[in-house]
Structures are given as structure tokens and as C-alpha cells.
Design a protein that fits this description.
heterotrimer; A mainly alpha; B mainly alpha; C alpha+beta; A: mainly alpha; MetI-like fold; 13 helices; globular; C: alpha+beta; six-stranded mixed β-sheet; 26% helix; elongated
Chain lengths: 267, 289, 362
């Protein structure tokens, strides 16, 4: 009976968790007039006009494309740089290793609000303003340390003897690392990629500061529209729903990797 | 694990160092630069020493925001850590339920932070929101007018948004515990509670440390969600440090005080993170018997 | 303490097993005497851990019943069976001191604190853990940790049997010997039923009075180490026990002579007669130790060719070619080592006949 109680609790929690999202879905399928006119639990006059408006207007949908581009670049940079570094931290003792590790983590602790302006100045001076790479690089500030942290945990779970055997067998370091070691922590790489994607996707302040039009993220376009059109709740909800979709796709396609990665544990 | 001693490992860390330093060192120097100067136009500034720091440290609105911030982060940790662990314990361990729960659990984490605010504005409005309308049937509830209601709404949103992170990490920690531990506990006649207290909790220490620190840092730095939902109001009742900082630095364009404020802010987060890290390292591992 | 009986045990991890290969355990039927030291020996994946978990109650078998002292315990969980188990790697309560680790099973059973203390101190003394009692369990060496795991079983005065699942896997080789001796001592002192699962024949043969050999979910033979060595009931036992394992030669029967590609080997009359009636592929088996190798032709010997000689210290292992079959023989020190040519003699007493993998015997 204990097992049952646990499951019931979990299902109730999931119900509560989905409710706000459901409510936004409900709003997104109705016109503003209908939303303000009547309170219904299920949309009776469902319409896709809000979605159609967003998906046919390039000033709207380019935001999604921009976000996806810089998030992908960020995830790749984070993984490529963090993998060797995490290996170093998990296998070697070297001068200043502990300080280095803590310094990396401190970069998650700076209040983004005031750093926005120096960021703006920095990226303007190197001519990267309003490019995808600028946002991707800036997001590395908090994603790379996290990636190193998570990967280090997974790597420490792999016995050192595997490395030793490979080196004795004459593997060069790059070949060993790419063909033997990374496949061993594949699930860990999946989990790390998930976290990098997530934190880059949801961040707004820096992304908005570093972009004007060309690389403007969807989340920023949304806020602009609130002030411009007043309160078109239907449109706002539809745009919000669409910001969730890429994330949902990512977890849906990586769900088995994640399940395996989480089973390996030691995040 | 005994580590190899080799300073060449630096070469492996170098790419990370360069990429992080690029976005880290110059901006922080710039902020330091702001904080010790009075800037009133491009190229026009004078050195003021610690004046901005003194001003900021004496600012009672900053003190209020700081206490509010501590209260907020404290409540967040107090609610989210136990709830997250409880949910992780309830998650299925095998079968299709694993993927399904992981996907559902991750949903709030993948929503951009300002969308979160939007969702909750819609959800809690007394006229058109499901939550707002339902609660108003019972008691009068308006997060735009009453400080307590604003806090309740913010906490609900925060718990809804971030508890899954704790759950996912705790779940990962739980799954890493070998089956033999549970078998041994069974044979030793341990109760569910003892199994939790003596096996599961100690084995989760590593991931819970990460969860605790992440939740502390991120809740202490929270900006977008309350900005969208309450804008710091009603009055100043939900003006947290970041919101107050943005008011000073960007809206009033006082770079000097803003810079000093940021660095004080940064040092507070750093100090507490370090203290928590040390404390959590010691819990369940220290020399006390 | 208890005598354990397994009646027609079978287990499958699959919900609806279709054929034999779906079963991890196939019809196990055996009795384990009270106070005996048993080893369960077999290669990885033969089902020995499954069988151990059936005995301890961590698994309920798909079929069959488990009896302790004649009482049916099949449905009882492990904590009701009064058994203790030591796992492959040390399972400890990291946050507790060694004392509290040892006291844990007693406290869970609501035993008085004065009694707990007495028992823990006693057991710590036996296991040489007394100096560590106040230390945290997490910081100790692997062998001390395994001793604590064992101690958690020993503290319970009512413990019926202690089960070991390859407990020495993570122990340094030079400490394995020490720990095994400790186990022997504990067994002699406390007269507990011990069941020891391992894939290492040296561990099994030195530890146990009775060794049960498992192969593909079946108990193929149980006996003293000597019985297993001298008369393996199953080809697998001959092959698995002894180093190197038994020699096997496919053969046909002609009266009381076994023919191996032309060469004739004399068999016991009765065995040969039984072999004529037996089903399955016929094979001769002989231990390398019992295969006689001569430099000159002697009565009843067959010519063969020596391929290699490996010096193992006090004895030599010869690799011999007999009509295309490779045989190994063990020569004790001082025996003449034939160079190329050699004559082999198969003593009738030690030449076994197997039909379909099973020993043909009187």
C-alpha cells in the first residue's frame, strides 16, 4: 500500500505542475475578447489565430530561430571545452586546481543585472554585438562551470585503471579520450547537454542586452510585445506556449539518455 | 581515488579558462572601475574611492532588500529541498514511468524565465486566471495589492519552477545507490525511515550539495520572474536585491553606486556559497562520531 | 542455527518463461546441514547469486519451497529468516561509527542497550575490530569494512546462517588469505552455517567442507574437495576444477576398449558395459596429474608427441599431442621429461567415461 501512496502523491504533484501550463494553453487557443469575456475551464471556441499570427510573421518566428542557434552553439562550446577540463579535474592534481575549480563556480554567482552593461561594452568593442556567437559565448560564463562540475562527477565514477590500460596499449591521449573515454560517459554527456541547453534557453537578461535585431531571442521579443500591444493575453499565451515547445522536443528525444544518465547518477 | 600529479593537466583546462575568463575578467574589472568613480558622461569621470561603497552600505533600502532576499532564499531552500527529495523518492525506478516522470518533471525548467512570469500572471489574475479565480471564491486574494498575497504567489511560482531541479538531482543520486545497500538494510531489519536516514540521505550528499548551492545562488540572484509578475511591488514588498539593483544601475543610470552594489552583492553570494559548501562537505563526513 | 532445505527450486527473472533457457535456476534440490561450511562454486552467470538470494529471501523463487529446520520460509522476507549476508563490496552505514554499524541490526530489533553493548564488544573482539569501534566506518580499509559487514551478521545471537557473495573481490590479494583464515576461525568458534559464493576454486576448496558446483542454473555436483577432484560427476566439474582442468577425448567403445582415432585405451569392464547403453556423446576424461608419461614404451602405453613443457616450480605441465588431440599432463619434480617422443599410459582407475557430459559410473 505504501508504494501506492507514493504514486498517488506523485500524480497529484504532476497535476498541479501541469495546471499553470494547461491554463496558458487554454488562453492561447482563445481570442483576447473571449478571454476577457468569459471564464471557462475548457476553450469552447478554440482558434489557432494566435499561433498563425506568430508563425507567419517573421519578426516573431525569427526569434525562435535565433534562440535555437545560440543555444546550440553554446551547448557545443560548453561540452567541447568542459570535457577535457573535467577530465583534468577528475584525474590530476595540479598547481592551483582547487582554486581554479572554485573560481569557475564563482562565475555563477555574479548578479547579471549590472554585468549587462560591461558585457555590452566588451562585445561591442570586439565587434560581436548582435551576433549569435556573442550570446553563446556570454552564456558560457555560467554554463561551462556547470558542465565541468557535472562531467567531473561522472568521470570520477570511471576507474582510473581504464585509462592506464589504454595508455599501456599505446593509445594516444586524444584517441583514447574520443574513442574510449567519452563513449563510457555518454549518458553523462547527455545529462550535461540537457542542463546547458536548459540554462541557455531560459536566460534572458544577457541575451537581450547583447542583441538588437539579428540575433534577438524569442523571449525578448515577447516582452517587447507586451508593452507595445498592451495586454493581448491570447497572443502572449501562444508565444509563451511556443517558447516551451523546443525544450519539450529536446527532452522528448533525449528522455532515454536522461533516464540512463540519471541511473548512472553522480551528477 | 588517488589522483596523478601532473601540471601539464593545465593544458586541458586552458580552453575553459580562456572562454570563461573572456566573459568574466574584463566585465568584473569594468564594474570595479565604475564603483570607484563618479561617471557623468562619456570620458567624464572622477575618482571617488570608497564613497559609493559607503553610500550603498548605509542605504536602508538596500538593507531592506537584503533581508527580504534572505527571507526569500531561506524559504525557498526550506521548502524546495525536502519537497524535491520527497518527490525523488516517489519517482518510479523502472519501466515507462521513468521517462514519463523525467519529462514531466523537467517541463518547468525548460520554460524561459520571463515566460514563467507570464504564465503566472495569467494563472493568478482574479478575473481570468484559474488559480486567481478559484482562490477568490474562498478568500479575497490579489497579489498586485496585498504584500502577503504577492509573497505567496511568488513562493508558489518559485517552488513550482525550481523544485524539479532538486528532484532531478536527488533522483540521480538515488539511482546511483547499489542494490546491495537496500538488501543489507532489509537483512538488518532497518525501517523505511532508517534506510532513508542512514543510506539514502548520506549517499545523496554530493548531489544534494550541488542542488543546495544552485538553489541558493539562483534564488538569491532571482530577477526576471518577480520583475514580470510583481515588478517589485506592491510598494517595495517584493523588491529583491536584483530588482533594486536594476532600479539603481540601469533605470537611474547611476553606474557608480550600481557597481559598488553589484560587488557587495557578489561578495555576499560568494561568502555564503563558500560557507555552505564547507558546511555541507563536513556534514556526514566529518570527524565527529 | 539451522538446517536448510531447498525443494524443487526454480527461478526465472522473466514474467512468463517459455523454455528452459529463460530460467536462471533450473530445479535445484538440495539440503544443507546445520553448522556446515559450504561453498557455491561456478562461473559468472551460472545462477549462484540468484540461488543465494533465494536462500536469504531477497528473492522469492518462481517455483519450489525453502525450508529452515523443516519450517517453510519461502514467503518470509529476509529480516524474518534470521540470516545475514555479506556482499561483494562492503556495505556500510557511512555516517555511523563502527560500533553503531555493528549495533544497528540489534537496535532495529529492539534489543536492550546493555545487551547490544555486550554483543558488539564480543564480536569486535573476535573480528579484531576493537581498536576501531569509535572510528567512522567510512574511513577504514576494504578488509576492515568487510569484517564489519560480517560482524553485523555475527552480532545477532539468533542468526541461522551467514551467506557470502564473493566477499573477497575487493580485497588486496595478500589480505585475502588473512580474511579467509578469520572466516575459518569464526566458523570453528561459533559453528554457524556458512554459505560462500565464489567463482574462484581455490577460495572454494580451501574454505568449504562441502563444495556445490553450479553450471547454467543447475547444481551439477556437491561433495568434498577431494570428491570433486577425483570423481567429477559432470564434464563441467572436471573442466572447471583443477589447474589445468581435466583432459577430454571424444571416443567410441569396442568391448572394454575406448578408441580415440585409432589408439585404444582400456577401461573398467563394468564402466564400459554401462557406456555401451548410455545416451549422448562419449568422452574419456583424465586429470593431468593421473596421466602417466614415459620416455620409453611400457606395457599398455600409446605413443604421442610432446609439444611444449611449462615449468611451474615444483611440477611441470606437458602439452602433448595424441593423434591430433591436445592433452596436458602434470609431472612431479624428479620425473624424467621426455623430449619429442613420449608414451602415455591411462591408469584404468583414473580414466573416466562421460556420456552426454555426465559421468558413467557403477
Amino acid at each position: 500500500m505504501k508504494v501506492k501512496k507514493k504514486t498517488i502523491g506523485l500524480v497529484i504533484y504532476f497535476g498541479l505542475l501541469l495546471m499553470p501550463i494547461y491554463w496558458m494553453l487554454n488562453m492561447s487557443l482563445r481570442t483576447n475578447a473571449s478571454i476577457l469575456g468569459s471564464f471557462v475551464l475548457f476553450p469552447t471556441d478554440a482558434t489557432f489565430t494566435n499561433y498563425i499570427k506568430i508563425l507567419t510573421d517573421s519578426s516573431w518566428y525569427s526569434g525562435y530561430i535565433n534562440s535555437i542557434i545560440y543555444v546550440s552553439i553554446n551547448t557545443i562550446i560548453s561540452l567541447v571545452t568542459a570535457l577535457p577540463a573535467a577530465y583534468a579535474f577528475s584525474r590530476y592534481r595540479f598547481l592551483g586546481d582547487k582554486h581554479m575549480f572554485f573560481w569557475l563556480l564563482t562565475n555563477r554567482m555574479a548578479p547579471a543585472a549590472v554585468f549587462a552593461l560591461p558585457f555590452f561594452q566588451l562585445y561591442s568593442s570586439v565587434g560581436l554585438m548582435d551576433t549569435h556567437i556573442a550570446v553563446a559565448l556570454a552564456h558560457c560564463l555560467f554554463n561551462v562551470p556547470l558542465a565541468v562540475w557535472i562531467l567531473e562527477g561522472f568521470m570520477s565514477g570511471i576507474p582510473k585503471e581504464i585509462d592506464e590500460t589504454a595508455f599501456i596499449d599505446g593509445y594516444s591521449f586524444p584517441r583514447f579520450f574520443i574513442t574510449i573515454f567519452i563513449p563510457l560517459i555518454r549518458a553523462g554527456v547527455g545529462v550535461t547537454a540537457f542542463f546547458c541547453f536548459m540554462f541557455s534557453w531560459v536566460e534572458l537578461l544577457i541575451a537581450r542586452t547583447l542583441t538588437v535585431t539579428n540575433a534577438k531571442p524569442i523571449a525578448a521579443i515577447m516582452t517587447r510585445t507586451i508593452s507595445a500591444t498592451g495586454l493581448d493575453y491570447g497572443l502572449l499565451a501562444a508565444a509563451g506556449m511556443l517558447t516551451i515547445v523546443p525544450g519539450m522536443l529536446v527532452i522528448w528525444f533525449t528522455r532515454n539518455h536522461m533516464a540512463k544518465g540519471f541511473a548512472l547518477g553522480r551528477v | 581515488m588517488e589522483k596523478w600529479e601532473n601540471n601539464k593537466a593545465w593544458f586541458l583546462v586552458l580552453p575553459v579558462f580562456i572562454i570563461v575568463a573572456f566573459s568574466s575578467i574584463l566585465p568584473i574589472m569594468t564594474v570595479v572601475n565604475y564603483s570607484i568613480q563618479d561617471i557623468w558622461g562619456p570620458g567624464q569621470s572622477i575618482f571617488v574611492g570608497t564613497e559609493w561603497y559607503e553610500e550603498m552600505l548605509a542605504d536602508h533600502r538596500l538593507h531592506d532588500a537584503l533581508w527580504r532576499q534572505f527571507l526569500f532564499s531561506g524559504l525557498v531552500l526550506l521548502i524546495e529541498m525536502p519537497l524535491g527529495i520527497l518527490l525523488a523518492l516517489a519517482m518510479p525506478k523502472r519501466g515507462w514511468g521513468v521517462s514519463a516522470s523525467l519529462v514531466t518533471m523537467s517541463l518547468p525548467l525548460l520554460i524561459p524565465w520571463n515566460t514563467i512570469g507570464t504564465i503566472w500572471i495569467i494563472f493568478t489574475r482574479p478575473d481570468i486566471g484559474l488559480f486567481g479565480a478559484a482562490v477568490n471564491q474562498l478568500v479575497e486574494f490579489d497579489h498586485t495589492a496585498r504584500p502577503l498575497d504577492a509573497w505567496i504567489t511568488l513562493m508558489l511560482m518559485e517552488v513550482w519552477h525550481w523544485t524539479p531541479l532538486v528532484t532531478l538531482l536527488a533522483y540521480a543520486g538515488l539511482r546511483a545507490i547499489p542494490e546491495a545497500y537496500y538488501q543489507a538494510a532489509k537483512i538488518d531489519g532497518a525501517s523505511t525511515w532508517s534506510t532513508f536516514w542512514y543510506i539514502q540521505l548520506p549517499k545523496m550528499r554530493g548531489v544534494l550539495t550541488i542542488a543546495f548551492l544552485l538553489r541558493f545562488m539562483d534564488s538569491f540572484l532571482i530577477y526576471a520572474e518577480p520583475f514580470v509578475l510583481t515588478g517589485g511591488g506592491p510598494g517595495n514588498s517584493t523588491t529583491f536585491l536584483s530588482i533594486y539593483l536594476v532600479k539603481i544601475a540601469l533605470l537611474q543610470f547611476d553606474l557608480g553606486p550600481g557597481g559598488a552594489f553589484s560587488l557587495i552583492y557578489f561578495v555576499i553570494v560568494l561568502l555564503f556559497s563558500y560557507m555552505f559548501y564547507q558546511a555541507l562537505q563536513r556534514v556526514g563526513k566529518g570527524e565527529k562520531v | 542455527m539451522a538446517q536448510i532445505a531447498l525443494k524443487e527450486i526454480a527461478h526465472s527473472y522473466i514474467a512468463n518463461p517459455k523454455d528452459e533457457s529463460d530460467y536462471a535456476l533450473k530445479r535445484i534440490h538440495s539440503e544443507w546441514e546445520d553448522g556446515g561450511a559450504y561453498a557455491l562454486l561456478g562461473p559468472s552467470g551460472c545462477g549462484k547469486t540468484t540461488l543465494l538470494n533465494v536462500i536469504s529471501g531477497l528473492l522469492t523463487p518462481s517455483q519450489g519451497r525453502v525450508f529452515y529446520d523443516g519450517n517453510d520460509v519461502t514467503g518470509l522476507p529476509p529480516e524474518k529468516r534470521n540470516i545475514a549476508q555479506v556482499f561483494q563490496f562492503p556495505v556500510l552505514y557511512d555516517t555511523m561509527s563502527v560500533f553503531n554499524n555493528l549495533a544497528f541490526p540489534l537496535r532495529n530489533r529492539g534489543i536492550q542497550e546493555s545487551e547490544v553493548k555486550k554483543r558488539v564488544l564480543e564480536v569486535a573482539e573476535i573480528l579484531e575490530l576493537t581498536p576501531f569501534l569509535k572510528k567512522r566506518a567510512a574511513g577504514l580499509t576494504a578488509d576492515a569494512k568487510q569484517k564489519i559487514s560480517l560482524g553485523r551478521g555475527l552480532v545477532r545471537s539468533d542468526v541461522a546462517a551467514i551467506l557470502f557473495d564473493e566477499p573477497l573481490t575487493v580485497i588486496d590479494p595478500h589480505l585475502k588469505w588473512h580474511l579467509r583464515r578469520k572466516l575459518k576461525e569464526v566458523h570453528d568458534q561459533l559453528k554457524l552455517t556458512l554459505i560462500y559464493v565464489t567463482h574462484d576454486q581455490v577460495e572454494a576448496l580451501t574454505f568449504a567442507d562441502q563444495v556445490m558446483v553450479m553450471y547454467e542454473g543447475e547444481l551439477v555436483q556437491s561433495g568434498t574437495p577431494q570428491e570433486l577432484y577425483e570423481s567429477p560427476q559432470h564434464k563441467f566439474v572436471g573442466f572447471f576444477i583443477g589447474s589445468p582442468g581435466m583432459n577430454f577425448l571424444t571416443c567410441t567403445l569396442e568391448g572394454n576398449t575406448a578408441r580415440v582415432d585409432g589408439a585404444g585405451i582400456m577401461l573398467d569392464d563394468e564402466v564400459a558395459a554401462l557406456g555401451q547403453k548410455a545416451q549422448g556423446k562419449l568422452e574419456l576424461g583424465i586429470r593431468p596429474m593421473f596421466l602417466e608419461v614415459h620416455a620409453q614404451s611400457v606395457e599398455g602405453s600409446i605413443p604421442a608427441r610432446v609439444k611444449a613443457v611449462a615449468d611451474q616450480g615444483s611440477f611441470k605441465i606437458l602439452t602433448i599431442d595424441l593423434a591430433g588431440h591436445t592433452l596436458r599432463a602434470r609431472l612431479t619434480e624428479g620425473q624424467a621429461v621426455p623430449q619429442n617422443e613420449a608414451w602415455l599410459r591411462f591408469p584404468t582407475r583414473w580414466t573416466k567415461l562421460f556420456a552426454g557430459g555426465r559421468l558413467v559410473s557403477k
